[in-house]
Design a protein that fits this description.
Largest sheet: 6 strands, mixed
Structural class: alpha+beta
Number of strands: 9
CATH class of the largest domain: Alpha Beta
Strand content: 15-25%
Number of helices: 7
Number of domains: 3
CATH architecture of the largest domain: 2-Layer Sandwich
Order of helices and strands: HHHHEEHEEEEHEEEH
Shape: flat
Mean pLDDT: 80
Low-confidence stretches: 15-21, 39-87
CATH topology of the largest domain: Heat Shock Protein 90
């Protein structure tokens, strides 16, 4: 695991600051609500597998008015949206900081997300957002220091949403540096919508056997891919066994796909030559289901 997850958890517990909604936004919403006619409250219906919510007409109209009133002005809007009351724990990655800088020999492009969330998820989301911002700034500082005396290179930092299912929300941050040789590093931050917590891989399991079970499945997939395609290569079954892939880290990067399968992710050079780039493996539930904690089965 590349980040200190215990630090993130501590930051989440200690997080007390709350974003402030701008006065003009709050006033606009209050005026809109005041102008709408009162309607009977609609009951919320809960379905067995997926929750569907029906909002009273006044609240729905207020939400519509709010999105018409607010322009896309970056961070202030992100703070305002994070304060809107929502039903259930919702996570959303929005661009918090974006800049580009070019010289005759270097090119830096950075897009840093802020993970916004409501009540239960706010502390974890704020802690992760702070962690990402610090790591991105550190990567830029190191890049500039490495190229202070010249030399061509580029640094591209960006993010996307790797997964957004009924239960799971995963933000992926990519840092791609090109100089004499390239290097790509990725970080995955997975949130459980039912609890609002940041979840690392070991949190999902009650038995340590998951490490061996998942690792063996990955090796099977590696061997099958190499047998099928000569251009595919992994650090496995080589003449340097000490350098071969042995097992996953207990807290290997991951996300949960829409079909419920576990996707285990590796950085460039972690389990394969640089020509393979970053690689990932989709693990069937049958491989690890018996190792899961009851609440995740």
């Amino acid at each position: 695991m590349k980040r200190n997850d215990e630090t993130i958890r501590r930051m989440a517990r200690e997080e007390k600051a709350r974003a402030v909604v701008p006065d003009h936004v709050r006033s606009a919403v209050e005026e809109t609500l005041a102008s709408l006619p009162e309607t009977p409250e609609t009951k919320v219906l809960e379905m067995p597998k997926r929750r569907h919510w029906k909002l009273p007409a006044t609240i729905a109209a207020a939400f519509l008015a709010l999105f018409l009133i607010l322009p896309n002005t970056g961070a202030p809007v992100a703070h305002a949206l994070s304060e809107i009351p929502v039903l259930g724990t919702v996570f959303q990655a929005v661009t918090f900081r974006e800049y580009a800088e070019q010289t005759d020999t270097t090119d830096v492009s950075v897009k840093t997300p802020k993970v916004a969330s409501d009540g239960k998820g706010k502390e974890a989301a704020d802690a992760v957002s702070e962690e990402i911002d610090k790591m991105n700034e550190a990567a830029v500082a190191k890049f500039k220091q490495d190229h202070a005396d010249g030399g061509y290179g580029s640094l591209d930092i960006y993010y996307d949403v790797a997964a957004d299912t009924d239960r799971w929300y995963t933000v992926r941050v990519v840092r791609e540096e090109t100089a004499a040789s390239g290097a790509v590093e990725t970080d995955y931050y997975t949130f459980d919508k039912t609890t609002g917590d940041l979840v690392i891989l070991s949190d999902l399991f009650e038995k340590d056997e998951y490490i061996a079970h998942i690792s063996e499945n990955i090796k099977e997939q590696m061997r099958a891919q190499m047998k099928k395609d000569d251009s595919v290569s992994y650090f496995l079954d080589s003449d340097m066994p000490d350098e071969d892939f042995s097992e996953i880290d207990p807290n290997q990067d991951f996300y949960i796909a829409e079909d419920g399968s576990l996707v285990v992710c590796f950085d460039e050079y972690e389990v394969a030559p640089g020509s393979m780039g970053t690689v990932s493996f989709r693990i069937p539930q049958s491989v690890y289901r018996s190792d899961l904690k009851p609440e995740y089965r």
